[in-house]
Amino acid sequence: MAEDVVFTPVRQLAEGIRARRLSPVALAETFLDRLERLGPRYNAVVTVTRARALEQARRAETEIAAGRYRGPLHGIPYGAKDLLATSGGIPTTWGAAPFKDRCFDFDATAVRKLEAAGAVLCAKLAMVELAGGMGYRQPNAAFTGPGVNPWNREAWSGGSSSGSGSAVAAGLVPFAIGSETWGSILSPAGNCGLAGLRPTYGRVSRHGAMALCWTLDKLGPLALTADDCGLVLDAIAGRDPADPTTVDRPYRYDGGEPAVRRFRFGVLRGIADGCEEAVRENFVGSLEVLRGLGTVEEVALPDLPYDDITRTILFAEAASAFEDLIESGAIAGLTAPEDRYTAYARDVILAKDYLKALRLRGVMAREADRVLAPLDALVAPGRSTVAAMLGGEVRSAIRGTARDVMGAVGNGAGLPAVAVPNGFGARGLPTSLQFMGRAWEENTILAAARAYQSATDWHRRHPADS
Amino acid sequence: MSQADAVRAEVETMLALVRERYGSRLDAEQLAGVRTAIEGIVQAARALRAVRLSNADEPAPPFAAYRADL
Asked: Most exposed among A238, A242, A305, A434, judged by the fewest C-beta atoms under 10 Å?
């Protein structure tokens, strides 16, 4: 199969598969070849799952030929962040050297649901070790090396879903699954010029996913378009008895054309302050586009220590989730030097302070909902900077070297957000725009993001390098 | 005691606990990194403590009683 299927959105690939113009087996072969040939260039891949992919692709081809079409992911290749458990002798490494040979005997619920939808698992994708939970300060924090950005190979793709970002951006897979505790879907999506969807907390089962922070972790897709993110969410959402945080709210993606509706957008006062100049300029340009799609108004949240709330929860839960690794001293085997000791500091967080953060989280969630209730979405720059350089330090709200009110509130309150590309900044690197909505309003923010993408063409640009 | 002195004292107390638990594994450079991390934790904690809440403000998510479906 010619490589002209590369950088084709899932929706169009699905139309070709359904009409039997595209062969799932040939499609899988194309992307498996690219993963094997180009994956190392970007440090994007931990394991190419060729045997499993071809078995799934052959099954899809047989079923579709027999008239048993499962839906828009049937026969579509994808990659999964390597914190999702996979059976069949495929390692699940969590990006960390101490686990590089570890295998599970079951599939994570998200992997199982994608298999049920007919999707074809082609690769386990690289990630920052332990999803960045040990305090890394620079991109070289994975045993597979730093995630390399397809737009500029001297820049980072992460984090922490670095392989999910670079693999989709380089056309190695049409979509990928990532995870976000604070920023790990929206950041690689923004760094790599992709759409990335962070679902509402409880929308997608984390069963079989590495736990970094039980009350913050979410799984979601990275893809070429917001529309594709909706198609993937439709397949992976839903209650799962194996993950008690999932809720009984059935989700169906509404991919209808948004052109008929007008949106009401809010912008937090001063949200672009402190952003790089190009990020700020591109955000101002995006607001002009959004004014053509609806209204844009300035709004404000009360003065609360949002970053401190979410940071304290994250640090305390990560210290507990990795208690064995920390207390045994096994963190000494991690790649980033700072990951070998920073977590010891979190051993001394007071229980009362953690509980205060949880109590303030309730206030934060109510205030965020009050501001969001009359709006379709809050909009903001996806990140305050373009991607960090591979040899440089990563500015991070988690460590307190950057501010990220949208990320702190969105993750702390478990709210959905989607990031889409909105231009380019320094060193030819993408910038992004995020839409954050009320809990369970994924369809609203996806409609807004689709409308934005209908009015712009940033998502149709792809790295020349790939 | 000034606020800066209070912060410093809290950081030193916490660092002493880390040193007690894990000091044998950490060299001077790493301990300095731990100190920096603790300073961030203490600053965040003090920001949280500065916000007054009512008695009824529960932690989120709230606790729920468990009963297995038989």
From this structure: A242
